[in-house]
């Protein structure tokens, strides 16, 4: 059920229509984005900045996608998201060759995974802690992060996580079938 | 400071539900932010019906974007200890 009505198509700016158009094969997700279109002048730059963070930057794309998946799981969207995350990503699946279904499945119990490396596990831990218990992110944890990431990489990772935590829970509430931004 | 926002109102955020200075519209907005930050799974149709008594869809979306930015980056700033500098 959709709690909020999507903006009407004739109200969409060309830029917002283009954003939504990337998900024409995924009507639930497109519907969720169309709700944000009620304030498209605010949403567009945020989305484009988010997309820029995902598609560019210093970190591997697959790592950032894993983090997004973890955030979705922690908002009770895992069953749906695991099946569709590659199709749902604003990044094209072919652009993320390192992200496999095996890795996606491993995010559930990432701490004991043999598939995920230490860098990926720490990134997932960072996302999990910031979403659930940010007070648990202490100096000791940041020391661990620094063994695998530079400061600019940590900042990039933190921004991906922050935007994911902030926005995806709205989609989870507005449109439970969407769950993740 | 924007119109309508006073030190008295800010002080009452902690116990906003019983405040006599905050309007019903303000209380609902604060409740929305609180639920989204702490227990978003508890937001149901009934709560959205209440929101719709005071806000349009576009206003709810605008408020949501503000809340989402505060939830995401607010946590980040607290973790990065920006406030201490």
Descriptive report:
The complex is a heterodimer of chains A (181) and B (85). With 181 residues, chain A is mainly α. Chain A has helices spanning 14-21, 27-36, 40-55, 61-73, 78-88, 101-106, 118-132, 139-148, 151-174. Chain A starts with 13 loop residues before the first helix and ends in a 7-residue tail after the last helix. Chain B has helices at 7-11, 24-38, 45-54, 57-79. Chain B has 85 residues and is an all-alpha fold. The longest helix of chain B has 23 residues, at 57-79. Chain B has one domain (22-84). At the A-B interface, helix 3 and helix 9 of A face helix 4 of B.
Tags for this model:
heterodimer; A: 181 residues; mainly alpha; AhpD-like; elongated; B: globular
Q: TL;DR of this structure?
A:
Chain A is mostly helical and 181 residues long. Chain A has helices spanning 14-21, 27-36, 40-55, 61-73, 78-88, 101-106, 118-132, 139-148, 151-174.
* Total discrete domains of chain A: 1
Overall average pLDDT of chain B: 86
Shape of chain B: globular
The protein's oligomeric status is heterodimer
Task: Give the overall shape of chain A.
Answer: elongated
Coarse structural class of chain B: mainly alpha
Spatial extent as radius of gyration of chain A: 16 Å
Structural class, judged by helices and strands of chain A? Answer: mainly alpha
Strand content of chain A: under 5%
Total number of strands of chain B: 0
CATH-assigned homologous superfamily of chain A = AhpD-like
Q: Helicity level of chain B, as a percent range?
A: 55-70%
Given as residue ranges, the uncertain stretches of chain A (5+ residues, pLDDT < 50) are none
- The residue-averaged pLDDT of chain A reads 82
Give the helix tally of chain A: 9
Number of helices of chain B: 4
């Amino acid at each position: 059920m959709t709690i909020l009505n999507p903006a009407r198509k004739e109200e969409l700016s060309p830029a917002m229509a283009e954003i939504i158009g990337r998900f024409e094969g995924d009507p639930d997700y497109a519907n969720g984005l169309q709700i944000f279109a009620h304030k498209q002048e605010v949403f567009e730059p945020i989305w484009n900045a988010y997309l820029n963070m995902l598609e560019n930057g210093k970190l591997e794309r697959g790592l950032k996608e894993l983090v997004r998946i973890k955030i979705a799981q922690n908002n009770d969207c895992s069953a749906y998201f695991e099946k569709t995350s590659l199709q749902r990503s604003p990044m094209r699946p072919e652009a993320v060759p390192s992200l496999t279904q095996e890795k996606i499945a491993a995010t559930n119990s990432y701490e004991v995974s043999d598939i995920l490396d230490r860098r990926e596990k720490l990134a997932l831990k960072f996302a999990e802690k910031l979403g659930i218990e940010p007070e648990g992110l202490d100096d000791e944890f940041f020391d661990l992060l620094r063994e695998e990431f530079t400061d600019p990489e940590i900042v990039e990772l933190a921004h991906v996580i922050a935007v994911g935590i902030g926005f995806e829970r709205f989609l989870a509430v507005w449109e439970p079938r969407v769950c993740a931004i | 400071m924007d119109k309508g926002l006073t030190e008295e109102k800010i002080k009452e955020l902690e116990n906003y539900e019983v405040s006599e200075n905050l309007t019903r519209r303000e209380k609902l907005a604060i409740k929305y932010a609180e639920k989204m930050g702490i227990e978003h799974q508890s937001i149901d149709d009934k709560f959205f019906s209440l929101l719709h008594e005071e806000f349009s869809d576009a206003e709810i979306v605008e408020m949501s974007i503000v809340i989402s930015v505060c939830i995401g980056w607010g946590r980040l700033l607290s973790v990065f200890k920006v406030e201490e500098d």
